[in-house]
Amino acid sequence: MSGKQVNDLRGEPTFACICGCLMFELTVMWDMETRELAWYDLAQKCKECGTITTAPTPIDWMDCD
């Protein structure tokens, strides 16, 4: 087996990685009419260290009330 082992911390939605990075790579689908995001995978990968976390969604705000 080769390559660097990546942390998998999926579960709680997060805005920042454990390394402090705020940028993530996401798999998305575009709406061809509005040119906005139509869908995205909840698994996001840290741009800095590669850690996999759960992307936040608008419905997560409902849990904050």
What does this structure look like?
With 65 residues, the chain is mainly beta. The protein has one domain (8-57). Helices cover 0% and strands 34% of the residues. A hairpin with a 6-residue loop joins strand 3 (28-30) and strand 4 (37-40). It is globular, with a radius of gyration of 14 Å.
Keywords:
single chain, globular, 65 residues, mainly beta
* Major sheet attributes: 4 strands, mixed
The stretches of 5 or more residues where confidence is low (pLDDT under 50) are none
Strand order, main sheet: write it out. 1-6-5-2
Looking at the structure, what is the overall shape? globular
Q: What is the tally of beta strands?
A: 6
The secondary-structure class comes to mainly beta
Whole-number radius of gyration? 14 Å
Element string (H = helix, E = strand): EEEEEE
| Alpha carbon gap, first and last residue | 46 Å
Kindly state the percentage of residues in helix. under 10%
Continuous helix count? 0
Give the overall average pLDDT. Answer: 91
Strand content: 25-35%
Number of domains: 1
The gist of it:
The chain has 65 residues and is an all-beta fold.
Write the layout of secondary structure elements.
Elements: E1 8-13, E2 24-25, E3 28-30, E4 37-40, E5 43-46, E6 52-54
